[in-house]
What we know:
Elements: H1 3-20, H2 27-38, H3 46-62, H4 64-80, H5 86-117, H6 120-136, H7 151-163, H8 171-181, H9 186-214, H10 222-249, H11 253-269
Helix pairs in contact: 1-2, 1-10, 2-6, 3-9, 3-10, 4-5, 5-7, 5-9, 6-11, 7-8, 8-9
Amino acid sequence: MEESWLWxxxxxxxxxxxxxxxxxxxxxxxxxxxxxxLGVDQTGLTFEILTNTAxxxxxxFIYRHDIxxxxxxxxxxxxxxxxxxxxxxMFAVYVVVGTIPAVVVGLLFKDWIEATFSSxxxxxxxxxxxxxxxxxxxxMRGRKQDGDxxxxxxxxVGLAQAxxxxxxxxxxxxxxxxxxxxxMKPDTALRFSFMLYIPVSLGAIVLGVPDIIEASDAPGMxxxxxxxxxxxxxxxxxxxxxxxxxxxKGNLRxxxxxxxxxxxxxxxxx
Length: 270
């Protein structure tokens, strides 16, 4: 790989990560395809951890008021048992419940999943299934709000998030699809989906810190990694804002079309 083009390739990869992380098209799948097209042999976890951290920061900034409300509301409910804060407390409990499946599956099977399914063909098939699922729920408009969620809802969405550990299966797509499928309103489905994203991503980042410290190529890759980080940070913010508008209008079918087209093209040409 020519050194002069290395920074540009990682800048593009950061943009791809940021643009696809919030939307239901699989960021991991798109990064795998982009790495192949750019000729980037990315074997370590440093790039993945850094760009995922960037996306996480952007999403936490967007949802900062919701996060603070859940923390303070839960604390107040535990101290006072005031019914006014019960909804926030239960929402936080369901976030914990929904996080458990991905944590268990990730700790036990993540390495095996990545070694077995990290191929372009797997990404293509996963995109086609994601497109089908998005098409099936395209017209659903649930009524459940934050205070209406149940243990079963949280567990089902959590299981969907665990399935998204397979490269090519969109995490946001699987959790939004499952949330809407359980009857949540679009804004509640989106909020619950990304509340689940936060603890799982934080855990992955913490577990990945030793890999960054031990990475032998880190000093020479400083500029490419910094560019990828900030590209992912900025693009994730705007992509998330855009997706929130799409969800409000109920236009998920367009993502379904996209997944079908890209999945078919990958099967044909790669």
